[in-house]
Amino acid sequence: MLKLIEELIKKGYLKTPAIIDAFKKINRADFVLPGMESEVMENIPLSIGYGQTISQPLTVALMLELLQPKKDDKVLDIGSGSGWTTALLAEIVGSEGKVFAIERIPELKEFGENNVRKYDFVASKRAIFITGDGSKGLADEAPFDKIHVGAAAAQIPDELKNQLVIGGRLVAPEGIDMQDLVLIQRTAANEFKEQRWPGFVFVPLISKE
Question: Which of 35, 71, 101, 121 could link 94 by a cystine bridge, Cβ 3.0 to 4.6 Å?
Answer without folding.
Answer: 71
